[in-house]
Amino acid sequence: MLDKVLRQWKERLLAPLLETPLQQVHPLAITLAGFTIGLGSGTAAALGAYGWGLGLWLLNRLMDGLDGTLARLQGRQSDLGGYLDMLLDVVVYAVVPLGLAFHQGSLLGYAFLALMLASFYINLCSWMYLAGLLEKRQKASDDALCRPEEDELTSLSMPAGLIEGSETILFYGLFFLFPEHMVALFGLMAILVLLSALQRLIWAVGYLSESTEVANADP
Known about the structure:
Layout: H1 3-14, H2 27-46, H3 50-74, H4 79-104, H5 107-140, H6 165-177, H7 182-217
Helix pairs in contact: 2-3, 2-4, 3-4, 3-6, 4-5, 5-7, 6-7
């Protein structure tokens, strides 16, 4: 919901940081370093070291922002880089709450963790398949709705949802800050993620149905 606005600010804030020896670092090295830090955040969560876990989580998110900005400044943007960045992010998104639930060890915590991860699974399936369809239609037509915006800063263009990267950073931070409310936070995030999937489903039904009718009407 906030990503499109915050990405522009992120680019402006991180660009000066990359006018340093970091310019010589390959973006993939930043991606892998951030992934390792993310695994460290999940490990800290499992050990109950919430302060360390929060710090490592925020550092992981900083590295996740750095690699894309660095790739753009170096002219090294690639489909492989975008793919690995997304894949490793998803691993970290799973490892951190798993660590939190493991430390608390309650059956209710595991149940709500399963609910939240299930919502992630549904949402990922929803938007990734939709992104593939939009890419397919973009290649087959000149439909402006299929084309990424000129200022798009991600590998894939996608209709906005309630829960995206910015909101995920906030929620995971709350997990560490208020572990006693972990179950309620897991449940709330699951509901909002499912609403995001529903939001994109409604968009897809309207857009894909309309574009199919237009195509069928063409001589």
